[in-house]
Specification:
Cytochrome p450-Terp, domain 2, binds carboxymethyldethia coenzyme *A, 2 domains, mainly alpha
Length: about 425
């Protein structure tokens, strides 16, 4: 099988042709209607975006290029990036070539560490990640090519270059942010003998005598890779990039959206929730205690973190993959055990509460308990891991959008008066 670039080179003419033909023959076909409730309600369910890298079914959950995420959870994240971009998993040769590309680009520019060190000591790790990425914007090959009059047909190649640079370096930025923010010492250099996930663990500097933390990291980076293009972070990234802003601008902006508590920050809040419960009840709580705690949370007007989803209507398969990992590696962990107990009682409580359309857990409900087991106990760092993984999807989506010459995003907004007019006309 071909290297990633050769494979894309081979696929892109066909991709352009099939979209061109579809638009020519069926461009006027109606895909979706929009109600007033949807316009006022975060556009939930409105089909107005195109994304080929992945898709989320309300019951089956995430599929990457048509393959359910659970059948991919033994793949390393580099292979997933290849799959996101091309629709195929790489063979050994293509994977080795992609890994070599990443290793060749992974040295972090020294100024990134200077920028991170200059930030306020109480900066959120997500702010450090986003800032570190944005600081590297001066390295963008897309921006440079554009300034030099690059042909539109070559945009995707510059996007691939930026993607490989970003993927190679984002783990270094994230690990440096961890070490600086939490007083762990100087940032550690990348080790070219390690794969992407293993290297990230190594640069965090957390001992991993069994190698299982590196396995968890690979799983983590695989499971969080992409989730269509309508979620806040992906959609923000797509919108920024549609103005031909390069990937450094777009990914940094998208990750700022991921930092919100209703989106990626939920994984930080989930573990804080679990730790608070353990503290309150002095150990592993009983089901009755959990039910009591859940109702207190809901009655205080707060959400149960890690439960519910804008699209999913069943247990997130990524939750199931993490659960299987936890059962194998740390079945006796207090935090993992409490997450399991919550899984038993929370869906019933939320059903009785009657508000959430989906009472089942999403991926964030469990990931923190596993990180905690391996000594990554700084909960405010958890969303950074989510962000590092999501860079894979954002980059893959961008390469394809550039190949197709995606236009600038510009949906139409309406005023209250226009809504009333539409209501009266109906
Ligand atoms: N606990 C309590 N109430 C919840 C809830 C939960 N876990 N999930 C949804 N609800 C409430 C909503 O707040 C909303 O209440 P109001 O009508 O008072 O505003 C009502 O149920 C209906 O919401 P919904 O249509 O079921 O859910 P949304 O699509 O509006 O929101 C989400 C989805 C994820 C923001 C929401 O379920 C939530 O806040 N969950 C907790 C935070 C979380 O786990 N986020 C991570 C999501 C994964 C990700 O994107 O990263």
């Amino acid at each position: 099988m071909a290297t990633l670039k050769a494979k894309l080179q081979e696929q892109i003419p066909g991709l352009r042709e099939k979209y061109g033909q579809l638009l020519k023959e069926s461009g006027d076909v109606v895909l979706s209607k929009v109600t007033i409730a949807q316009a006022c309600g975060g556009m939930r369910g409105v089909k107005g975006l195109v994304c080929d890298t992945s898709s989320v079914d309300p019951d089956a959950g995430l599929s990457v290029r048509g393959r359910g995420i659970q059948e991919l959870d033994d793949q390393i994240p580099e292979a997933i990036f290849y799959l996101l971009c091309t629709g195929d998993l790489p063979d050994a040769e293509a994977l080795a070539s992609l890994q070599a590309e990443i290793k060749a680009r992974q040295e972090l520019p020294g100024y990134v560490v200077d920028v991170l060190r200059a930030m306020p000591a109480n900066s959120h790790p997500m702010t450090m990640l986003d800032t570190g990425i944005l600081a590297m914007q001066c390295e963008s090959k897309f921006a440079q090519g554009y300034a030099e009059g690059m042909q539109k047909s070559a945009y995707w190649e510059a996007s691939l270059e930026d993607s490989l640079d970003l993927i190679a370096r984002v783990t270094g930025v994230a690990a440096a942010a961890y070490r600086i923010r939490f007083g762990k010492g100087d940032p550690l250099a990348a080790d070219p003998s390690l794969d992407w996930g293993g290297n990230y663990v190594n640069m965090l500097g957390i001992p991993d005598s069994t190698g299982e933390f590196a396995n968890l990291m690979r799983l983590y980076l695989t499971l969080h890779c992409d989730h269509e293009s309508g979620n806040v972070s992906a959609n923000t990234c797509v919108t920024i990039a549609s103005a031909l802003s390069d990937l450094y601008y777009a990914v940094s902006g998208g990750l700022n959206g991921l930092a919100g508590p209703l989106h990626g920050l939920a994984n930080q809040e989930c573990l804080a929730f679990v730790l608070e419960i353990i503290k309150r009840y002095g150990g592993r709580p009983t089901d009755e205690q959990l039910i009591e705690y859940a109702w207190e949370t809901l009655n205080a007007g707060k959400v149960i973190p890690g439960y519910g989803h804008a699209v999913l209507r069943a247990t997130d398969p990524r939750f199931a993959s993490f659960r299987a990992f936890g059962e194998r590696v740390c079945p006796d962990s207090l935090q993992f055990g409490t997450v399991n107990s919550l899984y038993k009682v929370i869906p019933g409580v939320l059903q009785e509460h009657g508000k959430a359309k989906n009472p089942w857990p999403n991926v964030d409900a469990i990931s923190g308990s596993l990180l905690y087991h391996f000594g990554l106990t700084e909960t405010s760092y958890y969303t950074v891991l989510f962000g590092v993984s999501r860079v894979l999807g954002m980059c893959a989506q961008n390469i394809i959008a550039r190949a197709l010459g995606a236009p600038i995003t510009r949906p139409k907004s309406v005023t209250y008066e226009m809504l009333v007019e539409a209501a009266e006309a109906a």
